[in-house]
Amino acid sequence: MMTLKIFLIAFVAFEHLYFLMLEMFFWTKPKGIKTFGLKSKEFAEQTKVLAANQGLYNGFLAAGLIYSIITKDHNVSIFFLICVVIAGVYGAYSTKKIRLFYVQAVPAILALMVTIIY
Fold first, then answer.
1. How many domains does the chain have?
2. What is the largest CA-CA distance in the chain?
3. CA 67, CA 3: separation in Å to the nearest integer?
4. Low-confidence ranges of the chain (pLDDT < 50)
5. Measured between alpha carbons, how far is residue 51 from residues 16, 32, 65, 113 in Å?
6. Taking a C-beta distance cutoff of 8 angstroms, is the pair 65, 74 a contact?
C-alpha cells in the first residue's frame, strides 16, 4: 500500500509541476492559450505575470509533496494534499469549470484518502 500512496502523491506533485510549466512558461504560447481557454494572445500577454505567480504557487505545492515523499513525513503529505484539494475546489467553483475539480482535486482526494488510511 505504501507504493500506491507514494505513486498518488507523486502523481499530484507532477501534475503541479506541469501546471507550473504551463502557467510560467507556456501561458502566451498556443499550448497555454488552448489549455486555459484564453480569449486571445493579447489577453495572455496582459495576464502573463498573474499566471506566472499562479505557476509559482503550484511549484510550492509540488515541492511540498515531493519533500513529504523524500522525508516520509505523513503529516506534511496530509497538509499539502489538503492544500491541493482546497485549491482544486475553489478553482472549480470560482471559474465555474468542473473539469478543474476532476483534474486537480480528485487525484489529491484519492491520495489524501490513501495517505490517511495507510
1. 1
2. 48
3. 16
4. none
5. 14, 10, 21, 30
6. no
Cα distances (Å, whole numbers) of residue 69 to 21, 22, 63, 88, 105: 21, 24, 10, 21, 19
Over residues 76-100, the pLDDT tens digits come to 999 999 999 999 999 999 988 899 9
Q: Which helix (H) or strand (E) holds 17?
A: helix 2-25
pTM beyond 0.85: the answer is yes
C-alpha cell at 103: 483534474
Domain that holds residue 48: 2-117
How crowded is residue 88: how many other Cβ atoms within 10 Å of its Cβ? 21
Helix (H, G, I), strand (E, B) or coil at 72: coil
